[in-house]
Design brief:
single chain, alpha/beta, 9 strands, Nucleotidyltransferase, domain 5, Rossmann fold
């Protein structure tokens, strides 16, 4: 089994809510071990009081950034320096940036040039350039919903889960899924789900969580755009475009 990635999580506390940190850490656990957890901000500011309560329970290290000049964001520069130091130290295999600020887009592109993946987490106000640069990018509001559902297991499924009609109306999503299947399918038109997932992750910021589904396979089934076959005693999922 291959070694798990060492992930550096850098948080821009000025531009993202503390309410989703538990969901972010759970999501990152799918990819590897978050061995670096830095939260940047001016800890003298009352607006970060919610973050202060989250630091010790999740072993997050606060990185103090004083507001030297009014109207200027010292946190951005400090986070970029922190990221570059970590990049050159070769002590991590991937980065996770928790921010809703598109000013970090050049940083994402620089990290990608070094061959390391960047997982993005931000609120729905996050500008599209930053969203597109990350792979994947997950809206933190969806992660907060998942935490609330765990607290009440009797609750109905998330209202943010898109229906079959909603998924099919999303033309960009439909095109992405169909292209991924077409590019990874065998001569008979069937594609292994893992190959489809890898193709999508390498070519877009897509995450099924943003549509209300924990797994890509669940979203695929809900869309009914593809035939589904379970092979190898149910351990392997294959899909085929219903139009073929």
């Amino acid at each position: 089994m291959s070694e798990r990635k060492r992930i550096a999580l850098l948080i821009d506390c000025d531009n993202v809510s503390h309410n989703s940190i538990e969901g972010v850490l759970e999501e990152l656990a799918k990819y590897g071990m978050v061995n670096v957890r830095h939260a940047h901000g001016d800890w003298n500011s009352p607006s970060l009081s919610g973050w202060i309560e989250r630091l010790h329970p999740h072993a997050i290290r606060p990185m103090q950034q004083f507001a030297y000049t009014k109207g200027k964001n010292a946190t951005d520069s400090a986070m970029i320096i922190d990221a570059m130091d970590l990049l050159y130290s070769k002590s991590v295999d991937a980065f996770a940036l928790m921010t809703s600020d598109s000013d970090f887009t050049p940083l994402v592109l620089r990290i990608l040039e070094s061959g390391l993946p960047v997982y993005g987490f931000g609120e729905k106000k996050t500008p599209q350039p930053f969203v597109d640069a990350c792979s994947p990018f997950i809206y933190t509001e969806n992660l907060v919903v998942e935490q609330e559902e765990k607290a009440d297991s009797s609750q109905q499924p998330s209202k943010q889960k898109k229906s079959k009609a909603g998924l099919r109306k999303d033309t960009a999503l439909v095109k992405l899924l169909r292209t991924a299947v077409e590019q990874t399918s065998e001569d008979d038109g069937w594609a292994h789900m893992s190959r489809v997932g890898h193709y999508i992750s390498n070519n877009s910021s897509f995450s099924s969580i943003n549509y209300g589904y924990k797994r890509l396979g669940d979203l695929i089934r809900a869309s009914e755009l593809f035939e589904v076959e379970m092979r190898n005693d149910g351990s392997a999922m294959y899909i085929k475009d219903v139009r073929k």
